[in-house]
């Protein structure tokens, strides 16, 4: 009884802050928790004109259909491939960027670099995609630069060739999100106790020694947690919007991902039960990945999200 | 922690209960509406005994009423209430229309409206759409014949028998009415007939290279080569060839479009044939492959977005195109303003070995958009009467021409737009649709058979393309509309997979490095297509075709 009393009291004391969190909680409940109930249609023959409760059960029919789809292997390869590629390339780059940015002494220049690097984050993929497509065109800037530098003789249709697609997806993603993802590391670095650097100076540590032994060690928990989250996002890491604007019939063998398939069969063909089954399967795989990453990170760095 | 989790769970349950409750409430009000509708109906029935079936129903009641009208086309820019035509119609009939246009993916919006039982009063949707079938089979829309019986028997006087027969369901009810539908009896009126499919070339280049005959594979390749060389000589940046409608499931131009040009038959002895395996079709696909090898077809049309293609066309950046003339109306206007010689003109394009005339698709009884009245509609009486009005000649005229004396008049014995209106229409189409709203602004119930007699003359640079199609239309092609299985049945799932396969194979075929490689890819495609269930799909199509024939013979 007493305990609850303090709980309520604390809530009252924090009421402004609690109010700020409330919209987020409501959003989470409405758009993330309530829809969970509707996942039941993955096991049912759902018809949108009737209630999900009335629909007849079909068991694992749709899961089997997806696993036996002739494009399953291609989609799996692309989804995991692009996600993994992004994880190993796009994950460390913002950390390195933040570390180097921290070494820049001129405040004005530092601010400029930081602002310039996170600006693309605010441009939507449909627009950015258009820009990237025109850069990659036959007469676009990329071909121009490559030919001028003597790296290729004739223009290449980069976007029409499957072998370039993963690279395009990763590089454009790094460009768009680099500055934004670095913000959290920059914040973490700002929190490092300056006394540590002073002590290291006295001990005669150089710039890179300090970076390695102090800065990185101090932001290790942040890196660990973000890594676990990134692994959980691996299957989403292929970023639906980006792939949707960059793919075409010619690069489908490298660009057809599970999310695109869900979109096509769900919104396009109106097969809601099947689309739900596929997305449930994907979510389950993501969950396993997060738990796995969490376990490994916990063993290695003693950091975990659970 | 535990407490917070508990709290969250309780909240979730509460909220989900709420949503389910409100859903139920919606449904209750929905059925209430329906009840109200029918009780209104019985009340009105007494009234309606005095209703004259020879008199349009809308004249009975012109008190103000608002109807929500959903249009399944995110690209539709029509607005209601600002243009002269819409104001005139609201004033005349009392009906204020609130157009509901999806802002993103159409299916996303319509699915939400259906699932939440929140359908607007009137719905217009393409006949090939999966959701058109869902709406009609789910008891969410009124049978128009029932509404007409109760509120406005004049409906049966203005609807075309062929169109009604085509869309009458096996249960005997008519749930929708199409626009742009040619009833088979109207198809015989050759004055009206034109097709949309054309092969066009840039006039100045075509003339400069000596107007080569491009009907044979050799002639086609030669023409493109001459144009390419000419452009290189003159320092023009021109892409030799462009085609319409590339997407996930292939390209319209490389499917039925080119098959129509080659006059490949749809059926033999009543049996549907596979137009894709016809030798003429394969011969020409190989020609396109050779064109690609000789760099007469470039990659751009495959990878450019629709906007990029449009920009190139507006700048007359292609030499030849397999493209519908309606998609060139604006472009040819723009080009004509800059240099009348650069416009696109239709010429004889790819033909079969006998050089037979193409058999072009002129539209059919299936029409384009189907309009339905939802059971959520609070004023089904007004909705059906409004629909009747729109379908009738009077409504068609009001929509197409506007108010007499204001936007049109009878000049030289012909009802036509005033000259300054025509001028605005041709000079600034956007301003014309926004301020005036006549002609094609509100095409939702447009009936070409009625309105074409009022249509202002097309400028010469459009007329040329239309005239080219006139003697090549195939009036029987409407028969093969809507024979594809819907996406939610087994045959439909098979067809979806086959189409996606085709979408991937098509560029491979065109880009194959040799005819032998083409043959290998082709053989693999046919084998894979058969494995995906092509025979079953064809059987379904045959069944639908037989149904279609039965409907038209009624």
TrEMBL record, chain A:
The keyword rRNA-binding does not apply. InterPro entries: MetI-like, MetI-like_sf. Keywords: Membrane, Transmembrane, Transmembrane helix, Transport. The keyword Transcription does not apply. Residues 76-293 form the ABC transmembrane type-1 domain. It is found in: Cell membrane; Membrane. SUPFAM superfamilies: MetI-like. One of its GO terms (biological process) is transmembrane transport. PROSITE patterns: ABC_TM1 (PS50928). One of its GO terms (cellular component) is plasma membrane. The chain crosses the membrane at residues 21-43, 82-104, 116-136, 178-197, 218-235, 274-296. Its main location: membrane. It is a multi-pass membrane protein. PANTHER family: POLYGALACTURONAN_RHAMNOGALACTURONAN TRANSPORT SYSTEM PERMEASE PROTEIN YTEP, PROTEIN LPLB. Belongs to the binding-protein-dependent transport system permease family. This is Sugar ABC transporter permease. It comes from Vallitalea pronyensis.
TrEMBL record, chain B:
The keyword Signal applies. InterPro entries: Bact_solute-bd_prot1, SBP. Residues 22-36 have a biased composition (Basic and acidic residues). Pfam families: SBP_bac_8. Residues 1-17 form the signal peptide. The keyword Transcription regulation does not apply. Keywords: Signal. SUPFAM superfamilies: Periplasmic binding protein-like II. This is Extracellular solute-binding protein. It comes from Vallitalea pronyensis.
